[in-house]
Amino acid sequence: MRILGIETSCDETALACAEFQDGKLTTLWSDIASQMKKHAEFGGVVPEVAARLHLELLSTMLQARKDEIVTVDAIAVTAGPGLKPALRSGIEAAKTLAWTLQKPLIAVSHLEGHVYANWLDQRPPALPALVLLVSGGHTELALMGEDGSFTLLGETLDDAVGEAFDKVAKMLSLGYPGGPAISKLAKEGDRAAFAFPRGFANEDHLNFSYSGLKTSVLYTLRKHEDQLGDLTFRANIAASFEAAAIDALMIKTRKALEKHEVKSLLLGGGVTANGLLRARTAELADEFDVDLRLPELKLTGDNAIMIAAAGAFHLEHLSNPFTLEARSTWPLGS
Amino acid sequence: MQKRVKTIEETNLLAMEFVKMLKGGETIALIGDLGAGKTAFVRGCLAAMGFEGAVKSPTFTVMNEYDVDFGRIQHVQHLDLYRFTLADEIEAMHLGDLHAPNAIMFVEWPNVLEEELIRPDIEVRIEIEEEGRRIEIAGDRFQLAG
Ligand SMILES: Nc1ncnc2c1ncn2[C@@H]1O[C@H](COP(=O)(O)OP(=O)(O)O)[C@@H](O)[C@H]1O
Ligand SMILES: [Mg+2]
């Protein structure tokens, strides 16, 4: 069967179609109208302006795919978590399509979408799995059971890891998005130059904290104000920050792997584009002998094909095309 | 009033005193650099109002909402305007509609834009010092003892 995916929860307006057959998912096509350029001027995502952009872009994109869209068997749309005005643009389009085409409507969690990106165009990962989701708004560890259910194991209690990257980039006057800019600068620096804190490193629970790291970088920058223009100093800050940020993720992922016996380690979210994270999780997966699935670089950011993929696993949970509403919060496993 | 708080625990004690003075309906602006402790202060206030869950940064979500049971206060909105760059984007959020006598609203980065968009009843300014923070609380119809 063919599933249409629609995603407007954050940065991207996206429309895609996946074929689901014998438990395997194949990408038929995947369109993303990047709002990045517009947002780079704004410095971020802003709900109302994003909602207007989503609506404009989506109607153009639907028009371009109108012949394909009439052939789909179901419609999956991101219903949360996210900015409600932005989510509504996608949801209203999906409701209208579902009603006019008389096809089932599936409300998908954006977070589950990131997980199911690891099912696309490859052998399905073995379950149970440990899931690590890392983005500008999320830092979550969850267990995915054999039946596909999610149990949240830990999450950030303050800032998300991607947010820490963006804010430290801002402190160093690097551009938006902060992640790639920090990583690039970090390549020239010494990861051990500054001993930045790893949030909750010594606590037994699996939650994360990134506000202490942000503040620690800030204090170091204030202390060495005279060196702010020095390239080596800046590179050392970036490298030491990146090491601490990724280390904190690895400490908890390791703990989770020690506590829970799983077959796979599944990553998702924008921060999975980070090279250090990819290298460190590969080592960890080797050590614990689990199958590591990292999304392809083009799937690390927000897209709609992952929403179609997640929809394929929720065909028994259909939504009403007249009443489906956006959910600003939607924790994994609820 | 103005106070030096050396540790986050001292910030939390100040937050406990602070929330006792609220009547409901207030808009509270939080002013201070990245990492100053704006979100930490709101976390302290929510804990003091009996909220037990995590209080996460609203930078990406723009607004987080909490239900509490603290005298007349039943709802707490926690906003962050950090990522806004145009006045009409903020106006389009219709923040006034959220105003209610049983709700209070915390706003981080209320002054990201030149235009005055938020008319706070109380301003909480947090300065980073070598050791700890200096917190200054001011408001027309607001008196804090000590
Ligand atoms: N009085 C204080 N003394 C020492 N550290 C503090 C104090 N108040 C807050 N902090 C720490 O500073 C950091 C502030 O982070 P956060 O509240 O996210 O800042 P902001 O929201 O202003 O960007 C937290 O790690 C917090 O524990
Ligand atoms: Mg904050």
Characterization of the model:
The complex is a heterodimer of chains A (334) and B (146). Chain A is α/β, with parallel strands linked by helices. Chain A has two domains: 2-118 and 299-312, ATPase, nucleotide binding domain (Nucleotidyltransferase, domain 5); 127-262, Nucleotidyltransferase, domain 5 (2-Layer Sandwich), CATH 3.30.420.40. Helices cover 43% and strands 19% of the residues of chain A. Chain A contains twelve helices and ten strands. In chain A, the strands form two sheets. Chain A has a five-stranded mixed sheet with strand order 3-2-1-4-5, with helices on both faces. Chain A has a five-stranded mixed sheet with strand order 8-7-6-9-10. Chain A is globular, with a radius of gyration of 20 Å. The mean pLDDT of chain A is 93. By secondary structure, chain B is an alpha/beta fold. Chain B is built from three helices and seven strands, in the order βαβαββαβββ. A seven-stranded mixed sheet of chain B has the order 1-7-6-2-5-4-3, covered by helices on one side. In chain B, strand 4 (73-80), helix 3 and strand 5 form a beta-alpha-beta unit. The model of chain B has no long low-confidence stretch (mean pLDDT 89). The A-B interface holds A 41-49, 81, 83, 85, 136-137, 155-160, 162-163, 167, 170-171, 207, 211, 214-215, 217-219, 222, 328 and B 33-35, 37, 39-40, 43, 54-57, 59-63, 82-86, 88-89, 92-93, 128. Adenosine-5'-diphosphate (ADP) sits between chains B (5, 7-8, 10-11, 32, 34-40, 57, 132-133) and A (158-159, 211-212, 215). The site of magnesium ion has 4 residues of chain B, from helix 2.
